[in-house]
Each structure stands twice: as C-alpha cells, then as structure tokens.
Amino acid sequence: MYDIIVKNARIPQGDDTITTNILVKDEKIAGFLDNIEGVAAKEIIDAEGHLTLPGCIDSHTHFMYQGFPHRENFLTGTAAAASGGVTTIIDMPCCSVPSVRSAKQLQLKVDLIQPQALVDFALWGGVTGEDVREGWLDHVQEQADYGVVAFKAYMTPSVPTFPRVTDPEMYEAFKAVAKTGLPVGIHAENYSMCDYYVKEFQKQGRMDGPAWAEARMELAEKVAIELGISFAEDAGARLHIVHMSTGIGAKLVGEAKKRGLNVTSESCPHYLTLNYQESMTKYGAFAKIAPPLRTKKDNEEQWEGINNGSIDFIATDHAPYEIESEKAREGMNIWTAFPGIPGVETMVPIIVSEGYNKGRISLSKLVEILSTNAAIHYGLYPKKGAMHIGSDADFTIIDLDKEWVIEPKKQASMCGYSPLEGMKLKGKVAKTIVRGHLVFEDIEESVLAGLTDEELKTIVHNFPEGIEEKYADEFSKYPYLHSAEYENSYRINNPEVIDKHIREIKGIKAKPGFGQFIKRQSIQILPRKITF
C-alpha cells in the first residue's frame, strides 16, 4: 500500500520525456511504474500527461515576516510560491525585525513562520558591517551549525537592522564565511557610485522612471562584481552574485569560472524579459528594483549566460511593498518610492513560456535552472531538486499549452502590483505537490476561503503562544517586533484587508503550517560547466 500515486506524469529524461506513474511512501519517492493496475494507494493524483518537474526552488525571497507584515506574510508568500509551482523557498535574513544574524534569531524566525508556511523553506544566514565592527563574526559559524544554506551581505544599504558592508568589512566577512565552506551572496552594486549619481540626477530634476536605472548604472554592478571576485579569490570564499542584472556580469562570472574560481550567479525572470526604458516609463515606481532593470541587450546576453553556464540558476528576489504607504503614497516620487517587486508566483511560468516554449533553453537546462542547481548549490540535494527514489516527493506539474495573462490583482501575493502585468504567457502551473501532498491546483476552490476570523487572528495577526516569553530579550529591544514602516503602513490599521485577500486566494489545498523548515543537508559545490 502506497500513500500516493502521481499517475500519468510526463517526467524529464535529459531533453526528452517519458510518461510514468510515481509511487510515494512516507512523503518520499518510492518508485516509478509504467502500469499501476493492481497497485494500491490511499490517494491518486492525476498529472494528466502534463510535464512534471522535480519541485522548483526559489532560492531568493524576502517574505518580510516578522517586522513588515504589511508587505507580505509567510502565508501569502508561500501561497504565491505554491501557486507558481515552487515547492521550496529559501528566505533572506535581512527584511525582518530583528534581522537574522545569530542562531537565536534564526530559531525565532522559524518559530514565527512555521505556523503560516504552505511549502517547505530553508533559510539564509546574515553577515553585516556591524558584525565585523562589533566583533560578532563568531555568529557566522553559529548560523552555519544551525543549518543555514549560505550568507548574505549587502554592498548597498538594505534596512536599518541589516547594515551594509564597506570594502574592508566585506573582505573580513568573506574570510569568516570561507571557514564554513558555505557560499556568501552579495548584492553587487557599488555604493559610492549609486549614491553619487542618484544625488546628481536629483539635482538635475530628473523625476522620470528611467532615471532610477540610469543613475544606478551598469558600471556600478560591474565594478562591484569585479571587487567581489577579487576578495573571494584572496579569501578562499565561495562567491555568489545574487539577482545579477547585466550581461557584463554574466561574462565576468564566466571568466572567473574559467580561472577555476568557485563563483556562481543567479538571474531573475524580470532581468530576462523586461527593459528599463519601456517598463519604468510605463510603470514607474512599480518597476523600481535594485539592481534596476537593464536593456534589451542585457536580456539577450543573460539568456546566453544561462546556456553557457555563467548563470547557474533562476531566483526571484521576491520583495513586495505596500502600494498605499511605500509605492504610491501622496508626495512620493521615483527616488523616494521603495525598490522591490513580487516574483515567486510567476518565475516558473515565465521561464517555461519565454525560455523553454520559445526554444531559448532545452528541457534539461529548464530542470537545472529551476530545480537541480539551486538544490546542489545550497546543500539540499538530493532531498530537494531531484526525482530520485528517496528524494522528497516534490513535483511541479505544468500545462505547457495553456495560455494566460499575468494579472497582479488576482495573484496570491499580497502586494497587488507587478511590472509583468499584462504579459502573455504560454505554460501554466496545473498542480504543485510538496512531499507527496497536493498543495495547489489550478481551480477556484481553496481551503483558505474557509478560515475563520479566529483562525486568521491566531495564524496571521498574533504571535504563537509563548513566543514573547521565550524571546523576551528580542521583544525588549524591538517592541512587538514592529518596524517603523509597519507602524506607518495602511494595513496596520486595516487588518481586514489582509484577511479578505487571504480568503480570496485560489487553489490552495493544504492548511497553513504544512510547510516544513529544511536545514542544509550537506556542503555541496556546483561543478563549473562553461560552454566556450
């Protein structure tokens, strides 16, 4: 007796596919059968002949909980992930109160987000300029021992609780992280360049959307990547360039790989499909991100980077903001609006539609950049990112022929905007399966619609019982774990808006709290595969 059979699943075999039936026992893949006649299971899930990938991974999300629950909470964020075919997310340490830079802060975050999670999640650790200055670099090994998959550092400011690193502080951070064997991911923009030219453009009176991208120019990312590579080479660190936006960045990473360095990179769907001239003219602050959107030439060079191996996988930098207080507040302009967009819900469909379905990438490359490579890089493989016997039974089932249009107001993510609005795609997630359980199906009905006021209060609006006592020292430093932005938000005084949104999310089949925290399984390094 098996727990579940996923029948009629068309699974990848290199660049080809075969149709099979996947057996699931104890939430893991137990086998594959061509014929299931006479085979018993408690539940049958029909993949209907659709392409069935090993569960897709978004390794770069900012779900903003705790501290910024007006932007996204872990329930809406993981609902968006499930709706987009993402079975595992890896959340960043910076956008929470307190930011995550110690084992205790990691445990606090897990205790707070676990009751909301709908898909599985791993966590990044953090290292900042403050950690270097205050002599707290011992927290790096402490976080590695806890099970984080990598460490994040910012060359430009993020939030007040996560200070950026200066050049020498970054070098010291690299040396500390190198001892753990884990990657260190940098937001690669040169702070002085960005700061100087933003102020220059403001002096010139530029208020148009494209001004943001032109002030934070390609050169700011180029020199930041070059510095990061130099420091990593000397420190012996594994360098990862997060949300890399430029074609020249891909070339620099490729050259570093050819020299034998452990340098990796990720891109995002918006850097592959949007350009700043069109999107920032049309959407203004709703297309404002950091690093900014680039040019059509960068789009094409990044697709080349994916195919030649200089870009290792796709992530999203999912970082939504509240429209009323942070994107379009009265008096706000392109310089003062907050930089960030959603992405976890559209990552898989965009790469399928604009990459695989349009012939830009092969099926094997699709699997690598959406699933396998991130799992290996972050030490989660083969538990995640694989379709092996014994791997977690995570599957992303895609209807390759379904045509649809991105409509932000109808998405699970709470923000309600996207510069991808109106994009026509071919290929849509039909079902998302996590550990053998159906978490999302492309239908109207959702278990979230039936959550009572009291359930939402307990799951979303209140801290779990005993948390304030268990973490009294953190609550004394950060009252209620509130950020200044949350205190000035629209949703803090209108929690019913959050409840209404959650109840209107479509297709969710699992209850909040189903998702599990996944610690790093081992230290793994992606092979350097470069096509010359």
From TrEMBL:
Keywords: Hydrolase. Gene3D superfamilies: Metal-dependent hydrolases, Urease, subunit C, domain 1. Its EC number is 3.5.2.3. One of its GO terms (molecular function) is dihydroorotase activity. Residues 53-439 form the Amidohydrolase-related domain. It is an enzyme of class 3 (hydrolase). InterPro entries: Amidohydro-rel, DHOase/Allantoinase_Hydrolase, Metal-dep_hydrolase_composite, Metal_Hydrolase. Pfam families: Amidohydro_1. Coiled coil: none annotated. SUPFAM superfamilies: Composite domain of metallo-dependent hydrolases, Metallo-dependent hydrolases. PANTHER family: ALLANTOINASE (PTHR43668:SF2). This is Dihydroorotase.
